[in-house]
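Whether sequence alone determines local backbone shape is best considered at the level of individual chains. For completeness, the protein is quoted in full, as a sequence line and a line of structure tokens:
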Amino acid sequence: MELGQVLEQRPAVTPQLIMANTLLRLTSTELEQAIAQELAENPVLELVEVRRCPRCGLAVSDGYCPSCGRPGFHAEKEGPAYREYEYSADSTSFLDYNVADETDDGISQLASSTTLSDYLLRQARLILPPQDLPIAACLIGSLDDHGFLRCEIDEVTSLFGVDRTRVENVVSAIQGLDPVGIAARGARECLLIQLEYLCREGIKQPLAKALISDHWEALGKQSFAKIAKTMGTTVGEVQAALQFIKDNLNPFPAHAYWADLHESPPQRTVTYPRPDIIIRNNPDSPDEGYEIELPGARAYRLRISVSYLKALECLKANKTSSTEHGWEQWEAFYARAWLFINSVEQRWRTLYQLALHLVDYQRDFLARGDKYLKPLTRAKLADMIGVHESTVSRAVASKYVQLPCGRIVPLVRFFDSSTPVKEIIKELIAQESEPLSDRELAERLVQRGYHIARRTVTKYRNALNILPSPVR
């Protein structure tokens, strides 16, 4: 045994790294909350709102924009007695891009419409007693994007302290609202509710109810001869009943509501996500590439307070033993402020580098659509940027990007290798003259160079909310 010295490099976990990684995984809203909390707790840190031209986004000087000459906001004069850190168009290169006109504001262009929940509650008030309306509101709030009920009846009974029969009666009342079949537990129950409604309206098909209630699994396998033999009828009558189901029933009741409005159902999690990254076509050189903007980096700048710097100089000039404790406290605030400012800067740098490499790698996807998305993993992107894979995962998590076409999609879309396959499946089904089975779709995909198993095609088709071929 002997004692020796070895020189080696090891990653060090510093406070800067911890805070930078923490801020990197935050969304824009969470970052604003973190900044507000830090401003409230640290008197040394100061937030300066940047007054910018509403047209191009550059900082306004003396009331006029230096780029477009448009009258803007009068900028306040600031003293030179501080060192400021700002990631904005007039101090860094990676944000030196034009901001779109006010007409690019997606929120201002959103049409106001009645939600499905509001539509159902308005109908429920007309048929239910006032004491049952809270139960109805709870049940309607538990509907998924297809209009199916996703809560347990026992949970609702315990929540309101009522018996199960009362809750079941409220569910039945909701299922009779428009669109008919809403709040069903699944597609089969939804179709049976709609059949009962058609029967009350005088529209009947004698075999349709038996097909759905007794031969649901066989119907999905297109076993028409077996079904006809079991029911004691002909294959033609079974196919006629199936055609009646296709023409008159909708297995997804919520979709019927949005189809009547000629709209798409809204996202349940967020109606209009704020983009963390905006990618635009370069107006000066459309063939050369894209512009990248980080909207959050333009909105504000953080700096060390001017008043603190003046107080610090006074403490230096009159430093005594009685002021030693106050001096240490202000030094701690000062170090914490610099740490936070540098961590916020690091967040913007990492997001920009990530966006820059994504744009360079996925140019075909940005220009031509989802079918041209190249396979990409977080590990591969991390190698391209020169960071750890966990850094890319934090940067991608819960972030949104606005594409040149105006769509706002999750940043993880750039890593979804199934997107091109799903788009081709949608295209094949849209062009089919006769319904294609999942096996036939898999064979068509092989012809296009995608070797996908039939069960994978089934999974992707279900994710696209496309019905099986027997009921399409």
Remarks:
- The radius of gyration is 30 Å.
- The longest strand covers residues 45-49.
- The first helix runs from residue 15 to 24.
